[in-house]
Design brief:
Largest sheet: 7 strands, parallel
Number of strands: 25
Oligomer: single chain
Strand content: 5-15%
Length: 696
């Protein structure tokens, strides 16, 4: 039995691995269907403008040459975007890894970091093929939102000094500790106000103003336009501000590919130091992908195992080019989403633009003010902070709010793994303390999977109990007379058996009433449906009581002229008049209105309380409820008139065809009766259920 269980487990594992290839193919099919190359191109351009100085700066902060950061951004970004699963994630060097990478660079050198990057990629592939990516699904929203908020706060903490023109703000604080938050140090020692570069602040504030004020224009690349403008102004006016060149030289070529060689005696020590870095890189990539899915309201979330495959292949490739570790990064991915990215091609374009910038624009990129980039990152950081989620958690689940704070605090202070583990522990304690409520919510979720919206008690079923008949007020009885009225249908008209026609309704020659229509002259009456008029599936005709239109001295609740077409799912609610040869489109609404002859009411249009002259076109989705709106209506086109004529002609033919079919059926029935043939029963009693008269 144990052997059979192992075989089944291996079979299920193999099936899941095959499913990875299928989901990868489906993800690229989504890219092709999206047809969003223009938006992705602009988003990639914007992200690349932000990523270039970040990659160089993080490389220098990690003890690596600028080329290592460029390789990570260009080659790692391309491979991760092509081989991963997330449609929005952008990969590159991460601030959360910089301290650990610095330790490896100090102990093993640049080649050792490249070898560690290669190891990280292999470990991530092992995790992916072991299907370990599914573990991230158990990360609760509180911890995920705390991680996102922590990244946002960390960005603000790092970029505020850049925005004000002095990234070395804490150098003069002799007692400053490496883990101390920069903003805290600035508040504790306000002498930094004397060192503010107001030109740098103007650069950053200009970018902030442009990006925030143009937020409603999603297709306008406000970030890259504002950065380009302020760069031009700062160069033209010769502003003394720190630029990208001050962070490090921007090379014009990538290094050649080679295998990183490390002395044999150092491989084991390097592996031991790399293992926690690999786990951290995998965790940050998956958390970033989940956070970006939430930010972008992704219709199809990423596949965690497939994303690990992409990140693993990216790190292996980067390692061969003497690069540094890459992960999916919330900051760059946030810029990607905010810039209007639709598919993974935006991340690919970002890496391609980075490569082009390295080769052709390195000397121009070096002139971009760091404060301008800091302004953009401050906006992104502020948008990543989920204060509303924290308030909601505090009101509903205070321990989940604590998990949020622990995760955010660990991320801000640079202790990412400790913060995430602490947040998860608090979350599981909360689950343990409220396990009964959690079981109820889990049961409700299972019920929803099976189509059960809610499970209610017996007391909620009062309507199922027998009740005595209650006499209705006498004023209601007048409707009985209207309901008793029989429709008057011309012999050449056709009313489908599945249509509902109630009350005093006059139906003219060759009119066609399709299936599933509801013509109810029970409240407001009478109705007139003119010759050759067709009412298609799902149309509803109803009217208010005692409300009518006078047509040639006769009162009508609804009056439809000749050659009128009412398309599927439209609503005509009296009192109203619709003139000859007028078309009312799908899902349109006409109420308390007069619509003249030869008009065309578009799909989903709403006409309420107005009088529309002859020959007007109501555009699709337009709301016409004032005289000014009527005056703005354009004239109907010849194409509209011809369309209505075609619809009328088709439905006249349908009415004739339905009549012919009914005659054929009548003849067949008469032949069967003469032959003594017995028709099959319409209802089999074995299908009936024996239910008690009183369920409760």
């Amino acid at each position: 039995m144990a052997e059979g269980r192992r075989v089944r487990t291996k079979s299920a594992h193999l099936t899941e691995l095959i499913g990875l290839a299928r989901r990868y193919k489906e993800s690229w099919a989504d890219v092709v269907r999206a047809r969003s190359w223009g938006q992705d191109l602009l988003a990639g351009m914007t992200v690349s403008a932000v990523a270039l100085p970040l990659n160089v700066g993080l490389a220098i902060a990690s003890g690596m040459p600028p080329s290592a950061g460029l390789v990570a951004g260009v080659i790692g970004g391309i491979v991760a975007s092509l081989c991963g699963s997330s449609q929005y994630q952008v990969s590159g060097p991460a601030a959360a890894l910089s301290v650990m990478v610095l330790g490896l660079a100090t102990n093993f050198g640049v080649t050792g970091v490249a070898a560690a990057t290669l190891m990280i990629g292999i470990i991530q592939l092992i995790l992916a093929f072991a299907l370990a990516g599914r573990v991230v699904k158990y990360v609760p929203e509180s911890v995920l939102a705390g991680f996102t908020t922590g990244v946002g706060l960390k960005l603000l903490d790092q970029q505020m000094p850049e925005l004000l023109g002095f990234p070395e703000v804490v150098d003069w604080a002799g007692d400053h500790h490496a883990d101390t938050i920069d903003i805290v140090t600035m508040m504790h020692r306000p002498m930094w106000l004397h060192d503010v570069s107001w030109l740098a602040a103007v650069s950053g504030v200009f970018v902030i103003f442009m990006v925030t004020s143009m937020r409603s224009f999603k297709r306008f690349p406000a970030a890259i336009v504002s950065i380009a403008l302020i760069t031009f102004v700062s160069i033209y006016l010769k502003w003394d501000v720190q630029r990208v060149a001050s962070v490090g030289e921007v090379p014009s070529a990538l290094p050649p590919a080679r295998f990183p060689l490390v002395p044999d005696e150092k491989w084991l020590d390097l592996f031991i130091g790399t293992l926690p870095l690999a786990l951290l890189a995998a965790a940050e990539s998956l958390l970033s992908a989940s956070a970006i899915d939430r930010m972008a309201n992704a219709k199809k979330p990423h596949d965690s195992n497939l994303e690990l495959v992409g990140q693993g292949l990216a790190n292996i490739t980067v390692g061969f080019f003497s690069g540094m570790p890459v992960t999916g990064v919330v900051a760059r991915s946030g810029v990607n989403v905010q810039s209007g990215a639709r598919t993974r091609m935006a991340a690919f374009f970002h890496a391609a633009f980075l490569g082009g910038m390295v080769m052709f624009l390195s000397r121009y990129i070096s002139q971009v003010p760091l404060a301008a980039l800091a302004g953009l990152l401050c906006v992104i950081g502020f948008r990543l902070i989920e204060l509303s989620t924290l308030i909601h958690l505090y009101r509903e689940h205070k321990l989940e709010a604590l998990a949020f704070v622990v995760a955010a605090g660990g991320t801000v202070s640079g202790h990412l793994m400790m913060g995430l583990v602490g947040g998860l522990l608090v979350h599981f304690v909360n689950l343990r303390l409220h396990r009964h409520a959690h079981a109820s919510s889990k049961e409700a979720a299972e019920n929803r999977k099976h189509g059960i919206r809610a499970v209610l008690s017996k007391e909620k079923a009062e309507a199922r109990r027998p009740a005595h008949f209650e006499h209705l007020p006498s004023e209601y009885r007048k409707w009985l007379g209207q309901i008793r009225e029989e429709p008057r249908v011309a012999r050449s008209a056709y009313v489908h058996p599945a249509a509902t026609v109630i009350g005093r309704v006059v139906i003219g020659d060759r009119a066609h009433i399709a299936a599933d229509t509801s013509v109810r002259a029970d409240e407001g009456a009478p109705f007139h449906i003119g010759p050759n008029t067709n009412i298609q599936d799902g149309v509803v005709l109803h009217a208010l009581k005692d409300k009518r239109v006078m047509v040639a001295g006769e009162p009508w609740a609804i009056y439809l002229g000749k050659n009128v077409s009412i398309a599927h799912d439209a609503l005509v609610h009296g009192p109203c008049y619709i003139g000859d040869e007028t078309f009312v489109g799908f899902k349109a609404v006409v109420h308390d209105s007069v619509v003249g002859a030869h008009c065309f009411v578009g799909i989903g249009a709403v006409v309420v309380g107005v009088e529309i002259p002859d020959g007007r076109f109501v555009p699709h989705g337009r709301i016409v409820d004032t005289a000014d709106a009527v005056d703005a209506l354009p004239p109907v086109s010849e194409a509209h008139k011809e369309f209505n004529e075609d619809v009328v002609e088709v439905n006249r033919g349908l009415a004739v065809a339905y009549h012919a079919r009914d005659r054929e059926r009548d003849e067949v029935e008469r032949e069967r009766e003469q032959d003594g043939a017995r028709r099959p029963p319409a209802w089999d009693m074995r299908w009936a259920t024996d239910l008690p008269k009183e369920r409760f």
